[in-house]
Specification:
This protein is mostly helical. The chain is built from six helices and three strands; from the N terminus they run E-H-H-E-H-E-H-H-H.
């Protein structure tokens, strides 16, 4: 179940909006579905979503839009990190030259879970 960014944006400063999001998350849990919050732009939003049990989030806080080539490089970095037991950041740094050649910008995070 997706939670629209118009509900996510004000949750840091508005407890009523947070209550709505919390209710949506609870309903999704009762129905046995996952929740995805859209438009997460700050760490504070991500923390609040995590606190109410939101399972997934997407938005600029995690990663900006990227080309397919950059995404492929990021996925390679995840695979390399998993294989070597490294942190993902180390693997992304190893791919930095490839990212620069493709015109990509190093993401803060390639994932979406809060």
């Amino acid at each position: 179940m997706k939670i629209d960014k118009s509900l996510v944006a004000p949750i840091v400063d508005n407890d009523k909006d947070l209550a709505i999001v919390s209710t949506v998350v609870a309903l999704a849990t009762i129905l046995g579905t996952e929740t995805v919050a859209e438009g997460v732009e700050s760490g504070a939003q991500a923390e609040r979503l995590r606190a109410v049990g939101c399972e997934y989030a997407q938005g600029y806080h995690f990663c900006h839009p990227a080309s397919a080539q950059v995404i492929e490089l990021q996925l390679s970095a995840f695979e390399m990190a998993a294989t070597r037991g490294e942190r993902v950041g180390q693997a992304l740094m190893a791919h930095g030259a490839d990212l620069a050649r493709t015109g990509g910008v190093r993401p803060r995070c390639a994932g979406g879970a809060p």
